[in-house]
Amino acid sequence: MKLKLTTSIGAMAIALSSVAYAQVDTITVTAQKREENVQDVPIAVSAFDGDALQERAVTSVAGLSNITPNVSLDAGTPFSGDTAVISAYIRGIGANDFAFNIDPGVGVYLDGVYLARSIGANQDLLDVERIEVLKGPQGTLFGRNTIGGAISIVTHEPGDEFSFSGDVTTGSFELLQIRATADIPLSDSLKSSISVSMKDRRGYLKRIPYPGFENYNVEPIQTMRAAIYGNQGDYEGGTDAKNARIKLVYEDGGPFKATLSGDYAFSKQSQLANKLVATSDAVFAGSYNCAIEGIQPPAGDMSCGGGPPPIAYAGGIGGLTWVADNPPIFGVNTDADPYNDRLPYDDRFITDDIDTSYANGNNVARLENYGVHLTLDYDLGANAALKSISAYRHLDWDVGMDLDNSPLNFLHTSFTTDQWQFSQEVQLTGSALDERINYVFGGYYFVEEGDLHDFVTFAEGLLQVDGPNYLKTTNYAGFGQIDFKVTDWLTVTAGGRYTHEKKLFEGAQSDRNGLNYKIAQQFGDPDCMSLAPTISEACRIAQGFPVPGEPLRYYIEGIQTKKFNNFSPKVSVQVFPTDGVMLYGSYSEGYRTGGWTTRLSNPLDYAPDFDEENATSWEGGLKSTLFDNSLLFNVAAFTTKYEGIQLNFQQGVSPTIQNAGTARIKGLEVETVYAPGGGLSINASVGLINAEYIDVLGPAQVAPNPLQAGVIPGADLPKTPDFKFNVSPRYEFNMGNGAIVTLLADYTHTASMWNDTERTFLLQRPSTDILNLSASYEEPGGRWNITVGGTNLTDERYLTTGQAQIAGGQIYGTYSRPAEWYARLGVNF
């Protein structure tokens, strides 16, 4: 059995924000729906306060990845085109897609409100008070889709007095970031805060012209359907984002408190940086390259590039007028007209520099994301309190991306999503029998509705996917947990959550180019010899298209329905052998709901779906604060049975979701913070994890091949590195006049990991060594401070995400950001 060692320092990183002179502070968290010292929570929790995040130059959720054990967080997923989309994995469980039909495996919460989509979940960390990362299934208190864990973001609470804090940051790639938060009391019982930020940064991958391209012909991009057309300059990987949050808190000293919060984020920036890694002459690329050279295989022979016959590129077959036919390209490079020649698609478009591309297509990602939250707290007396959290959120997202890295329209993707959600949660918390019993009971309601519309152009329009999809989810849940203090040294916890969920879906994906019919005509199908002026019903039926009157539609018509019922229990035992030491053992379950696959490239007479997945986890741990609070030392060991794994598999040109099988995940985490005194503190941790398939369902198996290690029993799960080590020494000293200088180093070693399900060799992430450094000076009065620092100073460049689109003709991915410097000026008054 191969062991995977994963380490990090994160669980106690928050302590360093206030550590000095042999004292390690802990933080209060709400991981169990009530306020507790993180050291008293029988869950593996990594918590960070706002100061610690700023010191480490962590400005988004994805930035937590290097400093949190057993956690992989990447900004962007394959062909998502936007860094606001998060790929989140905790202990080997997560999701690497953004589609509306796919639920995340790690729940992200903003002030207690669940963010249902991975789009926009990579939140900008504006006015953050703390972040809690809960590891392992959190099904009992947090619900479905927290099967890997949960990330809870808690924002700043308005103060009783007027205050202002802000900072301006500049740095590499023309970075300009401005952030400000003001606390404004409105009366003795009403206080408010306003936070705003803007961030503008040029991309790091430059688009350059392909030499001699002007001598070739190409169709304008507007001839291919897209969700959005636009080009945000000559660079990819840039940022142009604005955020705002307003909070009102009413509290008159009585039992009632109300918090109203509204947040708004808008960005319109360049696409996620994309780099062509390799090309393939299979299927579409091979067929296109043969077509422009006039190579015509015999009828029924698919050997030319292994794909559809080039006649499909002839254009206007049968006089079709209802599809987006382009001018004929068959034989254009061998005819007598030198002005209609076309560029082949091959590895000529792979540049020597990983930060350059020959792409010239759409280059834009637009996101509008906002929400309103109302939290009501009422102290019932007798050690009981009632809380209500009501929230409405909406996102509107459009992205257009050129993935082929060439001047051709060879692989262009674009998407539009319009989603709204409403949630209502009620919690009753309290204690009884002289605090021997602590409890939380609650109910939860959630509904979301919206659409995702895919547009994908393959091989100069040979296949033109047009995929509208509608989805709606309604969820009801009841939950409860009781902690019973049997003796001063023994506590037993038991809880559970019952969830009922109903999903509705309708897909209407089609190919606007009618490729199937053109191939059928070329191969002499008697029902499809005449395609004009319309496709006959006989031809439609013969080619397997399921909807009468809609000959281009792959998907069956009608609303599809799924219902899910789940009970997720948790049981744990905590032992307190001495002050500052807790031993615990727990059993917990979590699940993620199923859904439907939306990305078809051939017609089906049914709606392909996938079932829910489940995780059952046993965990044992130690949490300790030793040596007069100068040392925090925590250990967690766990084993998880992960069943019905939902993974994204490439089927031809279509990335589809299916249940892969079962995995066994075993791990060990050790996290520590040591403050020996004199202003020095050190964070460090080490861990061990083994995440492998023990059974792979037949349809999900991918045999090892020259390009991929495959999906077979014994194979590693994606996004789960073998080894991660993080150490962060921090030194703070007083200059004698009250001024404070802080020096911080943050080093992370991460072993290699697979970026995709099929374990494509060219997409494998190598082992990395990341070093961040910073130095800050705070003037004696604390009114202003200045920080200079650098991130990824070892200039490690590796693929953070990617796709093996072999049938489409390419393997591509996104490289990590290079070494960067920054300088920040902050003020407080």
From TrEMBL:
Matching Pfam families: Plug (PF07715), TonB_dep_Rec_b-barrel (PF00593)
The keyword Ion transport is assigned to this record: yes
Domain TonB-dependent receptor-like beta-barrel intervals: 331-793
Segments carrying motif TonB box: 26-32
Membrane topology per record: Multi-pass membrane protein
Subcellular localization: Cell outer membrane
GO biological process per UniProt: iron ion transport
InterPro entries per UniProt: Beta-barrel_TonB (IPR000531), Beta-barrel_TonB_sf (IPR036942), Plug_dom (IPR012910), TonB-dep_rcpt-like (IPR039426), TonB_box_CS (IPR010916)
UniProt KW Acetylation keyword: no
One Gene Ontology term, aspect cellular component: cell outer membrane
Positions of the TonB-dependent receptor plug domain: 38-150
Main location: membrane
Membership in a protein family: Belongs to the TonB-dependent receptor family.
Entry protein name: TonB-dependent receptor
Organism of derivation: Hyphococcus luteus
